[in-house]
Amino acid sequence: MQPTAARCRICSLGEGHPGVVLDDDQVCNLCNLNVAGELLDNYRYTNQVFTEFQQAPPNPAGDHDCLFMYSGGKDSTYMLDKFVNEYGKRTLAYTFDVPFESSHAARNIQLAREKLPATFVFDSDDDNIKKMMRDVFNRPRPGKPGAYLDEKLPCVSCRTFFVIRAILYAFRERIPYIVLCADPQQILTMESNVREVVRGFYRTFGPELASELFDGAIEDVLFAEDDELPKIVFPFIALRHEYDPERMVRELKEKGLYESSPMETHCTLFPLLNYYSFKNWGCMFYKLNASSYVRAVHRNENYDRSTFSIRFPRSLDLPDVEDRLGRVVMEIAAGTGDREEHRAALVDLFMRMDATEDAAGFVAESFLDMRKVAADLGIKVG
Ligand SMILES: [Zn+2]
Questions:
Q1: Which residues have CB less than 5 Å away from ligand 1 (the ion)?
Q2: Which residue, of 174, 296, 308, 363, is most buried by count of CB atoms within 10 Å of its CB?
Q3: What domains appear along the chain, each with residue ranges and CATH number?
Q4: How far is CA 69 from the centre of its chain?
Q5: Which pLDDT value is given to residue 262?
Q6: Angle at 343 between CA 15 and CA 275, to 5 degrees
Q7: Mean pLDDT of the chain
C-alpha cells in the first residue's frame, strides 16, 4: 500500500485517487463540482433517449420492444413491472448469471416469471468472464494519475462484460432498446452509446483478448450502421427524483413480486475488490460512495436520503476506517498477521459502517477467505 496521501478536507478522497485533484485549499474537484457540466450533458442525453423510448411505436422488426437487463434486485424488479404493466412495452427480461454473485435474487426472478407477462432469458459465460477477471487482477500496477473509477476496474469490467453480452443479443435479435437500471453514480462511467461501450472494452483489454472473450462477435457491433445498433435507456437516471427504495419495496411486496434478502446483491469478490483498490490506488472499494455521502451531509446537514443500496452512518470517521481496513486487507492478502485479530478488527469496522453483528461476521469471514477465492480463480495476491 502507498503512504497515506493528502486527503480532501471535506469528503476525504485522497490526492492519488483516480480522477481526483485537490486544490490549494485541500478541497477536491468533486466537492468543487468541476464535473457538473459533464454530468448535466449526460443527464440531458439520457433523459432525451428515455423520452424517445417511451414514445416509440412497437418494434416493427420483431416481437420485443426492449431488452431489459434483469437482476432480480428491487430496482430492476420495480422497473420491470412498470415497463410491462404501465408502459405496455413488449419486454425481453435478460438475466446474466454472474458466477461471482450469490443467488439471493433467484426467488424474486421466479416470482417475476410467474406474475409478469414478459419473455425471460438466462445467459451465462463463466469461462470467459473468469478469464477477463484474471487479466484485470494480474496486471502490473497501473500508471498514475489514472481516470475516474479506475479503482473499481474489476467491478466495472464485470458489468461491461455482461452489458456487451446483452448488446450482442439485442443486436442479433434486432431489439432497438436496452434498459439498464444503473444508478446515478454509474452514469459517469457507463456509456449510453453501445459502440462506445465496445470501444471502451477494446481500449481496456486490447483487440485480441476483447475479440476472444466474445468469440469475435463484437467486431460486428463496431462496424455496424448507427441505425442497426440498440440504444441504452437508463430509467433510474431519467426518474431519479422519484427514487425511494422503501416505497419501491413496499409496492413490490404488495404485488407479491419481492422477498427481501439482507444481502441482495452480495458479490463473492468483494474482499478482492478491496484488495485491488488498496493495492493499486491506496483506497477502499466503496470510497467514492462513502465520500459522496460525507459530501452530501456537509452540504445539507439534514441530508438522509440513502444512495443506491449503501448506507453510511453520519458519524463515520472515514480516513480512520479506511486506514485500518487497508492494513487488515493487505495483511490477509500477504498471508501474514493473526486470523482472530483480523476477524475482530473487520467485525468492528463493518459494525461501525452500520452492519448488524451477524452481517459484519459474515462479511468478515469472506475477507478471511480471500486467498482461497483468489487461488480458485487464478488471481495472484500478496
Ligand atoms: Zn472532496
A1: 8, 10-11, 13, 28, 31
A2: 363
A3: 47-254 (3.40.50.620), 268-377 (no CATH)
A4: 13
A5: 53
A6: 35
A7: 89
